[in-house]
Amino acid sequence: MDRTSQTSIPPALAAAAAALSLAACTHPAQTGAKPTPVAIADVAQGPVADERVGLGAVQAYNLATVRAQTQGPILEVLFTEGQSVAAGQPIAQIDPRPLEAALAQDLANAARDQASLANAERLVARDTPLAPNGVVSAEQLDAQRTQAAQLRASVAADAAVVQRDRLELAYATVRAPAAGVTGLRLKDVGDLVGPTDPQGLVTIAQIQPIAVVFTLPQADLPAVRAAMAAAGPAGLEVDADAQGSGERIDAGRLLMIDNQVDQTTGAVSLKAVFPNAARQLWPGEFVSAHLVLGRTADALTLPTSAIQRNDRGTYVWTIDTAGAAHPQPVSASGTLGGRTLIAGGLKAGQPVVVDGQFALTPGARVVAGLRPQPAPVAAPSETLGSLQ
To answer: What CATH class has 51-60+206-296?
Structure first.
């Protein structure tokens, strides 16, 4: 059987090769060596917000279904779909004629009972002085007084019936219960409506102010509650950003934290209120809700792609004034939206390599020949937290 021969390397030659290899790793930059193309960015310094980001759904601050409070056919619809209405503005007109007839009848009954009461009180006033002389019996006087009391009660009942009739007549004009924007019309002219109609005439959504309900992991709950306690009556700031583009839509305040954590998802719901002066938030849309727990005035940050790790910890490649790259240990305190917060090891304006680090060795000359990769958009669950 043929066997492959193995040639042994003399120890002296192996030691020389190792020395040359170490020298090449330690001093790779030679005069005239071709610079390594990399992407470079400067360490930035400025205010940074400690945020918690969650997916939020926009909701109307108040959502009311307008229903008729009296029964009858619709004579006129007094709004257009999508119209902004004020509280108390007429929405529809129900046929008032049956209600007007009932009011007229009850007014007549009230007038009859008032006339009867006046006559009964007159008889009591006339016969009261005659009773001691025996002209009118005590039994007769008591009966007259009882009748007068009954008629007074009837007059009071008539007043209540008339008040009810006037209220029913007022209900014939259906009015907006709150200011907002009307939705699709649910009833037409001629439809019979009433208090038991489950569909209603139209919905009205109050969008100024407007609410956003969003969720955060239960692990964020202690930090959120502590920040709320520290903020006091002013409350915590919440920013609403458009999905996808990340464009800022509106700024509001945190209103409340739900009273329980969803055990199926381990998330807690929070509600924020926004003025929505420009009406850019609309019920039903999804936004990224950024809950600001605090701000750091002069934080050092750099693109997260600059961060490298080895067995000694976290480091970045810095560029000196001669254009040579050097590894620099850093202390990173957290990440936010594709950027890393630096607690130590760098200074503002210092250039660092953000792409192309794999081809670098200590002292290698570099040239900005690569285009930096765009920073990733913060995911809904991304928060400012410690690096693992």
So the answer is: mainly beta
